[in-house]
Design goal:
This protein has about 260 residues and is an alpha+beta fold. Helices cover about 25% and strands about 25% of the residues. The protein contains four helices and 14 strands. The strands form five sheets. A three-stranded antiparallel beta sheet has the order 1-3-4. Helix 3 packs antiparallel against helix 4.
Length: about 260
Amino acid sequence: MVKSAQELALMAQAGRLLASVFEMLDRTPLAGLSTLAVDALVERFIVKDLQSRPASKGQYGYGFVLNCSVNEVVCHGVPSAAKVLREGDIVNLDITLEKDGYIADSSKTYLIGEVDPTARRLVQVTYEAMWKGIRTVRAGARLGDLGAAIERHAKRNGYSVVREYCGHGIGREMHEAPQVLHFGKAGTGLELREGMVFTIEPMLNRGGRQVRTEADGWTVVTRDGSLSAQFEHTVAVTATGVAVLTLRPDEAHLVGLPA
């Protein structure tokens, strides 16, 4: 659960590489691409350009590099040639990368073209909620502090928090202890220690928090058909607070801001 300095350095390396995948996607016109084409694009970049391994491919029998979760899809959306990204869609791209034995995990919800203001607001508040959680992380804090901060921000803005899926410890394995809930009570839960590494990945729904899994066994959608958004970073507890291992250059100004 607690990583050594050498392990943290390797995880930071994987995190930087994964951040560059999202930088590549930021430069890519996604409208008109199928989610399967996005999957292929990301796989080529990870393998050819970054000389790394897409950690999700083959994990638990999953056949793709990433999850593409469009509109009412909460998480685990399966890439498909038939699913083409259209103007007005929102899509969460959830990607993992392994380098030298260590894995980083991150996701971002993209706006495709001109997006309805209500959808844009959901995406923005979800991103803010993730950062509310990140800013609670420090040695001596509790996991409940993190969950409470996320849930409070979501509820203040009229959104629900999905409870069936959570963040997780990460390292040599994609999913390690602890489980990181995105709801909870401040002052409760596991005490954070320097060297812990885990993901924070809240999923917020515009409607109710209830979800269901589709017949493919992977794709999770909102039960009421409402929009859902998600963001994710891999973070490490440090001696001075928190390091966001998958931080992208455009987010550097967010580090150190008050909760």
